[in-house]
Q: What sequence folds into this?
């Protein structure tokens, strides 16, 4: 008897078929671009960043469907990847977010966004967005300051442009202001000015005639409505270090033919330098003059003459010297100049002789114009209509008939045809917490509505103006910067509608910048093969067989095991029972096979998994060679061809024509309208073109529509499953033009339709842009609306015998998980009144998906925060036609009574601040106010004016005195009582402890007595802890925790807190000890560290300290070793491991060594070659490599045997153990033991360590060699006792020595004992007995102290430590410090709004080069570092990068030359009156943090 078994897959879940690539996808047609719109560019620790990721096809900027995932890396100020995210791309976009932790270091972060497909090209094609994270005080006056000209010299007159607005967005007219010009930190000129009717001013001043520095500053201060504000910028001084390049238009210069000569000047830091000058011939005769227009770019008319050569000399900036040679002219050739006349683009062609050429114009690799031209000697004009080209950069090439180029010109076309976005608020003036409604419209060039997909951010304008963001916006990136070589200065400038010089400057940009649409990685060009597919691919293959191993053709269903709400996928096996599924997301799957045939047997069928692997780079074999028709990265311009239809053997016959029923007239078409994802009837509908097909036994939607619906083109799918349907006529092999399918209101895929055609009753096709806009951006290629019977994917019916058991198998699919998408929280306020005003968010609204409808309209609503300010709404997006657009507007929120208070971002115990409270009466009536301030415990208030009579439309300032007396993180409440009620304002305040945290760690594993001094203890800060470690893993975790307190960022530093967790997990595993909490903590550290470490892989393979190219060999070997050990506990990317091994093997030099990258391989020359080479060999042997590096091992062994280095001998002893060379190991141990007994061996380090770190690293390597043989336990025990004495609060010296010691600790603990030790130990502190745990701090005293540890019996002693922690105003300097720090303020007094110069000098006291170094500089509260200047320090290479930890500015340098003295100047802005003391500053080598040199904290008195 037959039974009907219903297999319920899941309500409304779709069954997807396996995509197979029948034809190769061509990269040139599917190149992608990515752009991020962020909710803000300036954040405070603890805030959350949101962004929308636009992923588009580079050719037409339409939503791209090649890549299904997009990656976002959040890069720290140090250059390390804090987090790597990946999101699913749908409808051409994705949404993402990142939370900045409260303790996140301040600085410049970078968002780097790309698809895997984009990694076939060089990193310049990747989108980067800088994000500033700082605690700042936002200005209360909106000011801008700029120098239009970028280059001045001695005696030059400088012009600066200034503007100011109030928080109501009104220009501040006729207002006086003061300015100060400082050179090298000293004021040389002061003056006043008054703003004009637009709130603007042009400030003119002259630089000194004698000028020896480019350190110039202009500072402007104003006092507007009791708000003292200031703005400052560096004066662009250029001192005779200018790089000037000349570039003839079209790239050709021909004798006797006039042309335009473009030029570009940059200073020593690569920044634009505006110049003036003359051109002289070889007789000294002036033949031309030139002057920059903008950003160092300009052009002049020039006619070279036969037999002459030319030079240029600069006349400005003043003092500029040198001669610059112009390009040599040719005797024959073609000169191409471009000019605009009316709406046409005219090409003025001049040839030295008659010739036949082609003029071809392309935009983004697609030819839009091509003409054969018969050139005669002389001038000829060819006109081209720009309307025939899409918006963007067009490349025009004059070439011979054999395609040899003669001249080329790039031109930007169609700026006016960008998407026009308009935002209209329902009113201009709102109140705090009031509802705001914005009407958004999107139109084309002629005002026609364009449906568009937008993102919208609404931010407080104060911090937005402070940020002064000049990075790429959606227009400049998609249309300009992404296709130009090098950095484009202020790219958004070229799209400013109110900037009169923007069009001319944009054309100069085209003349002076290199263009390349494709910029393939070198390996792609070398091998003519892509490196990456569109997405990482997981391959899972298998076979379905019966008990006799005969194939069972089946349908195999893939059910998610742990991830809910996911689609169930299905694939049919071939006749041999084999299947191969790709594209599975990470999860545990149950595979269920349903046989196609009639089943009579009860049991016996099985699913056998044959292959289960993850290909991180995707499978590139199915993609066309990228350089098939390209030369040097440029395509030949072959136009896209539609793919010819191909027969599909599995395709069932197409239904006959008479089965289709069409509407009889256009009138019938007007009865149908799309609403959401369903079809409704409407009496009238304009413009929508719809075709409807009724089906009874249709087998293929695609082929069934072929030829029956106008405008539909059918081509075979490149994925081999069904066909591509194109409604607009634009076709590509990518399949990205396929329409959106809707089944009974649910979006589905064409593959899903193919297996369920029996359910379809009719198909409706919509082609009109306005109609399909209702479906969102997925409908840019049209919509196919399908009506059918039954619910999609609800049931599958199979005939089986009553006792048949479905065969199943379980499979774990590895890979990178999708990052969860967080939603922006926008509060809803039901009343304008509130008991407490505490909502002062910088971003008050973020909507990543604003879809305008067929009328180009959308409406959004949200609520204001509590701030009295102006808000800025910024919208960006792309129209359905691929045109990008953006706009921004401002509106005002103002309360009847505004209360504004400034609080320093941080205070230190002992600081006394005068908090300025400005109260504004925004009504015409006078009112009396009572002011109350409620402080948290730990602060105390002074006397202040508590009652104010405030006139109508007036303002008043009160200074509220507060003193910080204890460490806290709390709120201050301000209450203003008025006749109509009261305003309660709540603002956060942070107070840190006085002085710098200092500590002493006394550690050993044997009886010992210490004398240690304590000096300058801050009262109440002393804490003491005694620890006795009966299990060594506790000591290891404590050391790791202590290391996490120090700033870190690079690969090696991250490894220091990651690698030891492997040792702990191995120890727990090997000893069988159960400690779930410890294991969980170690796994958490390990997984977090792995995700960070893998992000340091460079695009060239291998690893580098910050992930930059070129990779570093020794560091890569370290990574290979670390990742190999990780594999025992977590999943490690096998593709990354293979690439790492390949990179290292590729660096062998053929003579037993490795080719080391010159600039970084020795940690900047601090490590000898033999040390780096030996370390690489060791790391590769520990990672399991053997015979493939045998020559390198033998060479390193020979070198070590001849050396007198304890380090090299010990490292090679460990390598011999891993190479399974016991005789080599034995000989090396003998040499080590003899050397240690006789004290004749030299020390060594792979990171250039010195002092205690060098001692520990050398001993740790020796210990790791000894622990490999149990016969060495006694000697090892003595060595461990020596090492334990070196422990400090930072661990065991530098990061490398600490990691090695932790590895040795766990190995030693595993070797000596598998049981918990019990020791009988006595401890005394200043003759008082103490026990493990917290120690009474009163037992300690200023001056000398004594700590003693003794064994009570013969049980021995385990490791122990006494840690004394306290604060001191100035810790002692380390005698071993090799860097010395000096800090000073230019003045100890300042007025609010002034700048105070902080001078920092760091000197290398040795005659040797030093590796990475760190300076921590305490900045007094009340003063603030200016974000633009901190960024400028990086751009001018004064520092490598910076971070900010509360009131510490942390500066990093990669290296120091022998005796080098680095000087860094900061102009700190005086913000809030009061008296403040900064914390002590220090400097140290990155790898030896225990050796610090200190400077006392700086004092400042800021007055009104």
A:
């Amino acid at each position: 008897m037959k039974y009907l078994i219903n297999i319920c897959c899941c309500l409304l879940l779709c069954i997807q078929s396996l995509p197979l690539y029948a034809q190769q996808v061509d990269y040139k047609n599917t190149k992608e671009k990515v752009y991020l719109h962020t909710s803000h560019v300036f954040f405070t620790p603890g805030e959350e960043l949101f962004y929308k990721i636009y992923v588009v096809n580079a050719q037409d900027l339409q939503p791209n469907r090649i890549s299904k995932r997009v990656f976002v890396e959040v890069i720290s100020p140090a250059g390390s990847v804090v987090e790597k995210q990946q999101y699913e791309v749908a409808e051409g976009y994705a949404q993402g977010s990142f939370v900045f932790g409260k303790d996140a270091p301040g600085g410049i972060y970078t968002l780097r966004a790309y698809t895997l497909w984009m990694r076939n090209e060089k990193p310049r094609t990747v989108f980067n967005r800088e994000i500033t994270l700082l605690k700042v005080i936002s200005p209360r006056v909106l000011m801008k300051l700029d120098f239009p000209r970028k280059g001045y010299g001695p005696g030059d007159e400088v012009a600066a442009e200034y503007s100011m607005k109030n928080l109501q967005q009104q220009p501040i007219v006729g207002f006086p202001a003061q300015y100060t010009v400082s050179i090298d930190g000293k004021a040389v000129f002061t003056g006043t000015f008054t703003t004009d009717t637009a709130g603007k001013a042009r400030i003119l001043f002259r630089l000194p005639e004698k000028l020896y520095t480019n350190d110039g500053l202009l500072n402007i201060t104003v006092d507007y409505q009791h708000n003292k504000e200031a703005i400052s910028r560096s004066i662009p001084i250029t001192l005779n270090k200018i790089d000037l390049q000349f570039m003839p238009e079209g790239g050709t210069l021909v004798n006797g033919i006039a042309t335009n000569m473009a030029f570009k000047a940059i200073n020593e830091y690569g920044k634009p330098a505006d110049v003036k000058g003359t051109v002289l011939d070889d007789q000294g005769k002036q033949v031309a003059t030139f002057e920059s227009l903008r950003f160092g770019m300009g052009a002049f008319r020039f006619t070279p003459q036969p037999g002459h050569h030319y030079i240029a000399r600069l006349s400005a900036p003043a003092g500029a010297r040198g001669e610059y040679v112009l390009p040599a002219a040719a005797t024959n050739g073609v000169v191409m100049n471009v000019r605009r006349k009316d709406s046409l683009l005219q090409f003025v062609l001049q040839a030295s002789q008659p010739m036949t050429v082609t003029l071809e114009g392309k935009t983004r690799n697609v030819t839009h114009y091509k003409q054969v031209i018969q050139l005669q000697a002389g001038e000829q004009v060819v006109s081209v209509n720009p309307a025939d080209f899409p918006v963007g950069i067009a490349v025009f090439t004059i070439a011979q008939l054999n395609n040899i180029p003669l001249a080329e010109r790039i031109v930007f076309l169609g700026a006016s045809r960008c998407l026009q976005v308009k935002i209209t608020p329902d009113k201009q003036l709102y109140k705090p917490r009031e509802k705001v409604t914005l009407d958004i419209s999107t139109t084309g060039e002629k005002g026609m509505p364009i449906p568009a997909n937008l993102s919208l951010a609404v931010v407080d304008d104060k911090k937005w103006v402070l940020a002064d963001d000049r990075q790429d916006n959606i227009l400049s990136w998609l249309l300009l910067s992404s296709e130009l070589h090098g950095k484009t200065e202020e790219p958004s400038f070229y799209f400013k509608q109110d900037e009169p010089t923007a069009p001319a400057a944009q054309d100069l940009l085209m003349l002076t910048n290199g263009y390349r649409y494709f910029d393939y990685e070198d390996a792609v060009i070398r091998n003519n093969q892509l490196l990456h597919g569109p997405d990482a691919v997981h391959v899972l293959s298998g076979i379905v067989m019966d008990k006799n191993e005969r194939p069972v053709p089946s349908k195999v269903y893939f059910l998610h095991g742990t991830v809910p709400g996911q689609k169930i996928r299905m694939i049919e096996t071939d006749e041999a029972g084999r299947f191969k599924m790709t594209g599975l997301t990470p999860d545990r799957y149950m595979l269920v096979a349903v046989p196609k045939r009639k089943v009579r047997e009860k049991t016996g069928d099985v699913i056998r998994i044959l292959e289960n692997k993850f290909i991180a780079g995707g499978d590139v074999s199915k993609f066309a060679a990228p350089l098939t028709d390209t030369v040097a990265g440029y395509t030949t311009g072959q136009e896209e061809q539609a793919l010819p239809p191909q027969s599909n053997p599995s395709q069932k016959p197409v239904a006959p024509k008479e089965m289709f029923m069409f509407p009889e007239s256009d009138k019938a078409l007007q009865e149908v309208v799309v609403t959401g994802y369903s079809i409704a009837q409407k009496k009238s509908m304009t413009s929508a073109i719809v075709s409807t097909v009724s089906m009874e036994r249709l087998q293929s939607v695609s082929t069934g529509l072929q030829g029956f619906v106008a405008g539909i083109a059918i081509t075979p799918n490149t994925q081999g499953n069904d066909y591509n349907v194109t409604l607009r006529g634009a076709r590509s092999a990518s399949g990205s033009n396929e329409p959106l399918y809707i089944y009974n209101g649910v979006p589905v895929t064409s593959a899903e339709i193919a297996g369920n055609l029996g359910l379809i009753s009719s198909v409706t096709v919509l082609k009109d842009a306005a109609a399909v806009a209702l479906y969102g951006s997925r409908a840019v290629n049209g919509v196919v609306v399908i009506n059918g019977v039954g619910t999609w994917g609800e049931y599958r019916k199979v005939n089986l015998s009553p006792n048949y058991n479905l065969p199943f198998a379980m499979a774990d699919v590895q890979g990178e998980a999708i990052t969860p998408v967080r939603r922006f929280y926008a509060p809803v306020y039901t009343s304008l009144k509130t008991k407490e005003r505490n909502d002062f968010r910088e971003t008050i609204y973020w909507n990543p998906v604003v879809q305008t409808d067929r009328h180009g309209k959308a409406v959004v609503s949200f609520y204001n925060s509590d701030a009295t300010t102006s808000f800025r709404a910024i919208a960006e997006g792309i129209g359905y036609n691929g045109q990008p657009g953006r706009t921004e507007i401002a509106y005002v929120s103002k309360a009847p009574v505004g209360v504004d208070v400034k609080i320093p971002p941080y205070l230190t115990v002992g600081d006394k601040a005068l908090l300025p409270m400005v109260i504004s009466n925004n009504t015409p009536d006078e009112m009396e106010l009572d002011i109350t301030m409620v402080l948290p415990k730990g602060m105390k208030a002074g006397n202040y004016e508590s009652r104010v009579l405030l006139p109508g439309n007036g303002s008043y300032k009160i200074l509220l005195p507060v003193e910080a007396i204890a460490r806290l993180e709390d709120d201050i409440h301000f209450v203003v009582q008025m006749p109509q009620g009261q305003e309660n304002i709540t603002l956060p305040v942070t107070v840190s402890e006085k002085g710098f945290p200092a500590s002493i760690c006394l550690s050993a594993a044997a009886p010992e007595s210490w004398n240690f001094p304590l000096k300058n203890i801050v009262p109440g800060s002393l804490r003491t802890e005694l620890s006795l470690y009966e299990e060594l893993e506790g000591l290891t975790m404590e050391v790791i925790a202590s290391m996490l307190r120090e700033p870190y960022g690079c690969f090696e530093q991250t490894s220091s807190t990651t690698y030891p967790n492997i040792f702990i997990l191995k120890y727990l595993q090997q000893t069988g000890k159960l400690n779930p909490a410890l294991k969980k903590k170690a796994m958490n550290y390990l997984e977090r560290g792995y995700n960070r470490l893998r992000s340091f892989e460079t695009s060239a393979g291998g690893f580098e300290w910050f992930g930059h190219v070129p990779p570093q060999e020794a560091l890569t070997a370290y990574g290979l070793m670390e990742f190999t050990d990780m594999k025992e506990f977590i999943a490690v990317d096998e593709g990354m491991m293979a690439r790492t091994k390949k990179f290292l093997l590729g660096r062998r030099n053929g003579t037993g060594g490795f080719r080391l990258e010159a600039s970084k391989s020795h940690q900047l020359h601090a490590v000898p070659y033999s040390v780096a080479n030996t370390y690489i060999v060791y790391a590769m042997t520990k990672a399991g490599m053997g015979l493939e590096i045998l020559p390198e091992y033998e060479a390193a062994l020979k070198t070590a045997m001849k050396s007198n280095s304890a380090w090299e001998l010990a490292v090679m002893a460990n390598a011999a153990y891993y190479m399974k060379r016991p005789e080599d190991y034995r000989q090396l141990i003998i040499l080590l033991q003899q050397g240690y007994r006789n004290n004749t061996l030299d020390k060594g380090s792979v990171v250039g360590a010195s002092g205690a770190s060098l001692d520990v690293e050398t001993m740790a390597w020796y210990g790791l060699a000894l622990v490999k043989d149990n016969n060495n336990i006694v000697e090892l025990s003595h060595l461990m006792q020596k090492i334990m004495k070196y422990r400090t609060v930072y661990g065991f010296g530098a990061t490398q020595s600490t990691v090695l010691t932790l590895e040795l600790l766990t190995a030693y603990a595993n070797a000596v004992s598998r049981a918990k030790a019990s020791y009988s130990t006595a401890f005394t502190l200043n003759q008082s007995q103490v026990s493990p745990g917290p120690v009474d701090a009163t037992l300690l005293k200023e001056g000398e102290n004594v700590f003693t540890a003794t064994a009570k019996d013969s049980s021995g002693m385990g490791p122990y430590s006494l840690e004394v922690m306290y604060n001191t105003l100035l810790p002692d300097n380390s005698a071993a410090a090799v860097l010395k720090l000096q800090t000073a303020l230019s003045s100890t007094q300042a007025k609010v709004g002034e700048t105070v110069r902080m001078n920092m000098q760091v000197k290398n006291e040795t005659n040797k080069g030093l590796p990475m170094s760190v300076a921590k500089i305490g900045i007094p509260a009340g003063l603030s570092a200016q974000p633009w200047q901190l960024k400028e320090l990086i751009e001018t290479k004064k520092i490598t990068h910076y971070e900010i930890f509360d009131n510490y500015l942390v500066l990093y340098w990669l290296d120091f030359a022998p005796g080098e003295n680095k000087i860094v100047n900061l102009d700190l802005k005086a913000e809030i009156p009061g008296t403040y003391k900064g914390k002590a500053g220090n400097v140290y080598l990155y790898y030896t943090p225990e050796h610090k040199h200190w400077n006392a904290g700086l004092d400042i008195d800021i007055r009104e």
User: Anything to note?
Assistant: The two ends are 98 Å apart (CA to CA). The longest helix spans residues 1076-1093.
